[in-house]
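Forgive a beginner's question, but would it be possible to get a protein, spelled out as residues, together with the matching structure tokens, please?
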Amino acid sequence: MDQAKGTGIAGAAGIAGARITILVSALGAGGTEHVVSLVASHWARLGCAVTVITLEAPASEPYYRLDPRVALRRLDVPVQKASKLHAAWLVIRRLHRLRSVIRNSRPDFVLSFLTRTNVLALLATRGLGLPVIISERNNPAAQPFGSLWKWLQLRLYPRAFALVTMTKGALDYFSPEIRRHGRVIPNAINLPAGWENKRGNNVLTAVGRLTRQKGFDLLLEAFARIADQHPDWKLVIWGEGEARWELEAQRDALGLSNRVEMPGLTPRPGLWLETADAFVLSSRYEGWGIVLLEAMAAGLPVVSFACDWGPTDMIADGEDGILVPNGDITALADALSDVMGDDTLRTRLAANAEANVRRYDADHVLSQWDAMALSALEHASARKKPVKPYPANATGY
């Protein structure tokens, strides 16, 4: 029997009936939110009592579908810009509400995603005797944080039962004290059910939150350099975020108003897969790049910056995708031009990508989460065992 598969069967059987609480700041459109919905729904289907806690307002709706058996609790203390004094008050409110809801959910262990939420989880569970698994979902070396959050991260992370990252590079960033209980679990392929192939209109596609991290400003500059060579191609950037105005202004200044579309979020997850003919990831840094994995799994030719971390784990350069030096606009433009101008190249890269990323099959990846959960449950069970009394004839008092 395959070792990973065997571990998955044992893990799934061992966690059935467990009570699990998962923390995440929000359930909008994003890679972390996608993973939360996948893992929470998987455990609910196994018979676990799963509670997902978010900081969102009560009216917020998840972008990704959750199994109806998953209990969703919204704390109504969303992340927002505030003065230092007000921000401190918000943190206190979050901690108070979070601790109360965690206790009411009576979990066997807690799983938390993203740095600030991880810090809150470790503070809110102090003294409760619960194993807390924390997961970093971005590049910890590049992601900006305030000095206080960084200090809290360094002090609190060693108290976690385990740290899960998506790449070894991200795990190696942390100190030996933090990473000694580390696990590397990559993202899983989870393509939308029933998607239709509507390709063939020469659409170069990018997907992500409209922020500096995603490097869409670099992509616009690269596309501008080659747009005239490929007049039958257009660029579509799916996503929403605070940089929309700047990106639209840059697009217009580059004379690309009729060549670049920015339609916002897809009406349903993964809809962009249906119309894309090639995919590009232009991020300055990543935790993984789940949209890149989805593009490869759906049989798309891909071009990506070789940013830390993720793309270099997924792509074998020249075989199932093209990697270019991180931040090199000229190299990105040249690679995109090669792909857009060569149908044979696109076909070869797409076929190899679809075959090679099968190692990230959802069943295989979820079995690793099951093993992580089983480890936490065994730890919690061991801590609850009563201490055996000394026999009546014992000495050494």
